[in-house]
Amino acid sequence: MASSPALQTLCCELVEEYYGDFYRTLFECLSQGGRLTTTQVAQKCHLPLRQVKAGLAGLIQLRLINHHTVSDSPSTYSANLTNAYNTIRAGKLIQAAHMYYDELAAEIVETLCELGFATISEVRDRVLSSSNVVEAGNVHLIEHRIQELLEDQVLTHLRLAHFSEAYDTRRDYELIDTSAVQLAKLSGTKAKQEHADRVEAGYRNLVSTTKSESGYTNDEYLSTIDKTSSNGVNGMTNGYHKPIPVLLQPNLHKIVSLAQETCAADIATEIFGRTAGTVLRCAIRQVASSNVWIEQPSEYIHLIDLQVLKDDVNVERQNQTGTDSRIAKAKLNGHSGTTEENDLRLGEIERQLASLAEGPFRFLSSGAAGSSFFIDKDKLDSYMRREEMLQAMDSKFQAPAPRILRVLIDKGKLEEKTLQEIGLLGAKELRQCLLMLKQMGYLDLQEVPRNPQRQPNQTVFLWFHDAKRVSNIILENTYTTIARLIALLKLERQKLASTLIKVDRADVRGREEQMLSAAEYTVLLRHRKLEEWIWGEIHRLDSTVAILRDS
Amino acid sequence: MPPRPSATPTPGPSPSQSKHPVGDALYNWCRGQERPPAEIFTQQELLSSGLIPSNNLHILLEATSYLVARRLFKIHDIKGQTGVGWELVEEAAAANYGGLNTDEQMVYASIESSGTAGIWTKTIKAKSGVHSKVLDRVYKSLEQKGLIKPMKSVKHPQRKMYIRAGLTPSEEATGGTWFNDGRLDIGMIEAVTDAIEAYCSFQSWKEAQDDSEDDFVEQHKRKQPHDGFDEEGKGKTKKLENGRMAEMNAKPRKQPRYHPHSPGYQAYPTLHHISNELMEKKITQLAIPNNAILQVLDVMVYDDKLFRVARDARADETPDDPDSNQIWMYRCFTTPLDLGQRRMREKRMRDGHGAALRAQELEDIGRGGFSEVPCLSCPVFEICGNGGPVNVKTCQYLGPWRAKMEEADADARDPWPQLKKKTQPPVKAS
């Protein structure tokens, strides 16, 4: 993720919001200072070394900073902006776990979000001690749910390489892998390419979330989970480390695919109706769940398994109609549990897919016979990005700016006169709009001189839209807006500080209505309503970030 | 003492000029050839007419000079050849030069030669080399004689331009069908766009015949109350309007429900269909050419009102894309019912109805991650920040936004708890 001042500010605000002032101070220092040692952090923050060390350990546990140690020099620490930003998505992931699985799954995810990462035994013990949904001693149910969450990539394995910067991990691998070292010594393009490929493959292997640090793949691990989960440590070693416990982390990146499927389904629902929306949502989910590389999805066209899609759609429809059975329950019981008469048949699913493929969803295509359907992941990503960007521009600008932007996106570079003709716009109106868009960075102007003297009357001025740049502008604005909303929350809390301090007290919590005066209680309820709204807006904005930046 | 020459010594072709039989015969011969207008006669062609005795070039020169002087011939250089050619001018057009002085003739000739494109006064000045004050007088005179008229060019709206009186400015100059007096005719475009959208919408959906299926497009959509108020708020109104009670108690009229056409449907409207529809409906007084309709259709595609679908052209159709032999069909993703509701809402918004405005806002936010936070459309977004003159504490937009949130929750029947207003203690009378 490219770092920007707006993102840095936002991440600092988020760290303060979730973990308090102290962690914010350390995180801010590292995000501004880059790679620092403990001594440097202590000097910059004007804090005692002992406190700084404890704070950095806490931040590592929360996965908000990376660290790196080489043999003969002190460890260095750097801020992990990706993870710091992703903390905003914890609530969504918990909600999704609750929606698609059950309360226990939500508790497991919540525990891991609180801890940053943990071993299976830690998660199990914590859930057992705090949960109301699992009876004491029902360890098997928790492990089963963890297994399921791992299968669906709601949880992933945490590897040692995840604690370091990508650059450091690559360097370390280069030093360890002898054949890579030998290749590095060779000259020539082919050898260099081979070396780069080898390092990349090694790096990918080190950061792969589908297997644990001890070398188990997901399937291997899941088959032995019962045997090894008693202490969360298995006996395997990975060559240069001692036995490492199996570490789990919440996969906050999962929210990206959720945002994508929700957005696409919303568009489909708006055009073709609820069933089409559900079919598209399930089809995209099928593509997302088959992703092996979560960090870097590979390029491929996915063939939709219609039978699986039919089952998913019927379960989802049942869920939408408000039946109390959750998707996970249905899966656990081994059948969908939907009533046959309300089920969509395969033919109807095919008809819906064919309708969608004929519509604006270019990423969805049908096979020659019309009974097979494909989703192109790259096209899906670019379609979603384009839609989100256009949506952002439509809501920001009045007519005719969206039309101008769409024409330029479609046609490329155009002269003002041509733009006027294509867009059916008046000269004055067009010029004003172009200047406004240029000023805001949504359009660029290219000068093409007809002669070397570069006289303005002999120069062609071409307007164009740089999608990458505009996307960055929208992202920057979104980061700033989220930061301001968090600042607004803080301000509102300051206004109600006296009431909120009371509410935080153990004797008041849960009994606010009895313990607070009527006026104070009303103010508290109003504040909670406001908080709900603001967090709702923050999560909407996060969907924009998920689609524009992470998909 | 000879008489003092006037400022305009040459009064143009005058009827008093002596006749030239060969010239007249040559003119008549040229007219008899029935060549297309503006085609040029070469010297060889004129000699081949058999009217020039012994093909004597001297006589030909005299004859053509005579015709040129009477403005019945125009001299042209012939491209790629050495020598000149002559263009035939209608007698009526030539008669316009009668009674004009030299300056007027020069200016009129320039204007006439520019044809339907018209000519900029600055160009006339550069061509003729006449002083601008004289030119102003000439323009006035020519206008009074009804020979020229001013015109506006869409491409250069600031320029003062003239065109021959009898001509209609070219499409390039007027901007085409969608321009009126050099200005974009927004009203006409909107009328045509609305008609096309309504037509395409009706053609893109089929009305549901049965009620058994649950996947009607309308079901999922947020139902807009007809008057912008929810049923709760109507209680008082119902009681007051006793006269309308019977009408209200009557069974509500069933709204039509729409299905999309089956996949592979080939009868979505094409340019030809849309053009015919516009002609039948007589949206405009004049017929709209197909290229102008195509222009509007493109704009509607850019505005997300229509979606283009391709199909193979039939034998009797002209393909829109000759390379792939495909024809474009236009599909509208808004159902006729939604279209009607949207237009009603737009009308209400224009009339200043707050509820309609809010409904439109919700519709606009709709899907996706974009939110209604005021920051995203804030005019002072760039200068807002901690320590600056504008920040979260001083922001003027957050207050109204908060009120809007409260209002929206109240609309959704989840109102915020209300603070009790402090009552002022009664002031004792002294």
Describe the protein's topology.
The complex is a heterodimer of chains A (551) and B (430).
Chain A: H1 5-19, H2 21-33, H3 38-45, H4 49-61, E1 65-70, E2 73-79, H5 81-86, H6 90-100, H7 103-115, E3 118-119, H8 120-130, H9 139-151, E4 155-157, H10 166-176, H11 178-185, H12 189-207, H13 218-223, H14 225-228, E5 247-250, H15 254-272, H16 274-289, E6 301-303, H17 306-320, H18 327-332, H19 346-358, E7 364-366, E8 373-376, H20 377-396, H21 401-411, E9 414-415, H22 416-423, H23 427-439, E10 444-449, E11 459-464, H24 467-495, H25 497-504, H26 512-515, H27 518-550
Antiparallel strand pairs in A: 1-2, 3-5, 4-5, 6-8, 7-8, 9-11, 10-11
Helix pairs in contact in A: 1-2, 1-24, 2-4, 3-4, 6-7, 7-8, 8-9, 10-12, 11-12, 15-16, 15-27, 16-17, 16-19, 20-27, 24-27
Chain B: H1 21-32, E1 40-41, H2 43-47, H3 57-69, E2 73-77, E3 84-88, H4 91-95, H5 102-114, E4 119-120, H6 121-128, H7 132-144, E5 148-151, E6 161-164, H8 171-174, E7 179-180, E8 183-184, H9 186-204, E9 205-207, H10 217-220, H11 235-240, H12 245-249, E10 258-260, H13 271-281, H14 290-302, E11 307-312, E12 326-331, H15 336-350, H16 354-365, H17 398-411
Antiparallel strand pairs in B: 1-3, 2-3, 4-6, 5-6, 7-8, 9-10, 11-12
Helix pairs in contact in B: 1-3, 5-7, 13-14, 15-16
